[in-house]
Amino acid sequence: MQDNPESLTDSWGDWRWESLSLARQFALAGGTVMLVAILAVGLWVSGRIEEVVVRNSANTTALYMNSFLAPVLQGLTGHDSLGPEQRLEVAKLFDETELGQRIASFKIWQKGGIVVDSSNPELVGQQFEPTENLVLAWDGEVRADLEQTSDAEDVAERALGLPLLEIYAPIRNLHSGEVIAVAEFYEIASDLKSDLVKARLASWGAVAAVMVAIGVSMFAIVLRGSFTIDRQIAELTSLSARNFALRIRAQGAAGRVAALSDSTLKRIGADLHDGPVQLLGFAALRLDALRARTFDLKAQDEVDAVERAVRDAMGEIRSISRGLSLPDIEKLPLADLLLSLARGHSERTGASVEFNNTVQKGTEFSVAVKTCAYRFAQEGLTNAWRHGNGADQELEMELSGDILLLSVRDRGPGLPEESVSTKPDTDGGMGLAGLTDRVESLGGRIDIRNRRGGGAELVMSLDLKGAE
């Protein structure tokens, strides 16, 4: 019997995965997947928002600054430095324009990483290793980073402690369109940073809301299915328990009917032995006396024929009586019953039988089980003698848990399936068909197979839990 599934889902205390209901498994697995999805999608969306906002802001600022700076910096065409007048004009642009008020610092780059002008005069004329953004700006691309002041030339900007938008704007020759310089300026981005934080929170909230809505709707569907499955499992478990109880009762009833039938057969056997056999014996004695008074040879031959028929009838009735009668099943242990049966079979047929028993002494079996085992062994030994010539017959009994195993073996020529007898044996056996019905009525089964090296094996496995 399996545990009631309701007991497996009564509380969250038992965290074994297989013990959780379908809804709880979905809640754990789906919740984990949803959380990972929220983090992944949220990071991606917020990253894209920041990238787009920073790029658009940088393009706008770069375009605005380029409209002022490009005319002033045209003197760099064919030159590698700016004159004092040009530097003064650049300074005025950053100091006197509205946008310039938001610029914390600036640098004007010449090819090769040379600073030709800067809000920090100490950097003018110095050469630095070109960064990736600087290289791309020389290729004509506007580049921007938010709060990325880790380059070697950014010492002064880092010291400000302000959120800065670092923008690289290519400056082109007004006639040829060739990039003649790169203007790098640092815009104070406090408002931009605040807007990005709000955008991130909004994007995270939107992603989380959508994911939670999806998760809740799916969980509701799974929860409904889980309740249905749990209810069906509970109903099936209850039905299985009732079916098992009915099977136990049916097997018990079958065992009692079999025991009653054997008792009736035993009584019939005793009545045959004590009634018709005695009368036939008396008739045989009277025929002997009648022969002594008969002098006609033809009449004596008739008397002899009648006497032979009477004695043959007595033999047949005794044989039937032996097959119908059983020993004292109720009082004797099963092992003693089988040992006595093996010895009786050896005495009757002249074929030796080796009896092996591994069942612990004192183990109790019901009358139905003992009767079934006795009839099985009786039929098996009879068939082994008839079909296997009684060669190396073995009778073995063992107990594996609640399963009683009884085997009859021989080393004869083997037994083809089509030759298995399904009719009563002449030795008083009940036939394999009837024996199979008896065993199966108690919840057991019979297997017959050929053995390696020759011979056949008849095995009965009987579940003692269902046999009374």
Describe this protein's structure.
This protein has 468 residues and is an alpha+beta fold. It folds into three domains: 25-196, PAS domain (Beta-Lactamase); 275-325; 329-468, 2-Layer Sandwich (Heat Shock Protein 90), CATH 3.30.565. Helix content is 55%, strand content 15%. The chain is built from eleven helices and ten strands. It has helices at residues 5-8, 22-72, 84-96, 132-138, 155-160, 190-274, 276-293, 297-324, 334-349, 367-387, 432-441; strands spanning 103-110, 114-118, 143-146, 164-172, 179-188, 353-357, 393-400, 403-409, 445-450, 456-463. The chain has a five-stranded antiparallel beta sheet. A hairpin with a 6-residue loop joins β4 (164-172) and β5 (179-188). The longest helix is centred in the middle third of the chain and has 85 residues, at 190-274. Mean pLDDT is 77; it is low at 1-14 and 419-429.
Give the proportion of residues in helices: 55-70%
Overall SS class? alpha+beta
Tell me the number of structural domains: 3
CATH architecture of the largest domain: 2-Layer Sandwich
Estimate what percentage of residues fall within beta strands: 5-15%
CATH topology of the largest domain: Beta-Lactamase
Average pLDDT metric: 77
Given as residue ranges, the uncertain stretches (5+ residues, pLDDT < 50) are 1-14, 419-429
Q: Say what oligomer this is.
A: single chain
What's the level 1 CATH class of the largest domain?
Answer: Alpha Beta
Major β-sheet profile: 5 strands, antiparallel
CATH superfamily of the largest domain: PAS domain
Series of H and E elements:
HHHEEHEHEEHHHHEHEEHEE
Task: Please work out how many helical segments DSSP would assign.
Answer: 11
Radius of gyration, in angstroms, nearest whole number: 53 Å
Number of strands: 10
Characterize the overall form: rod-shaped
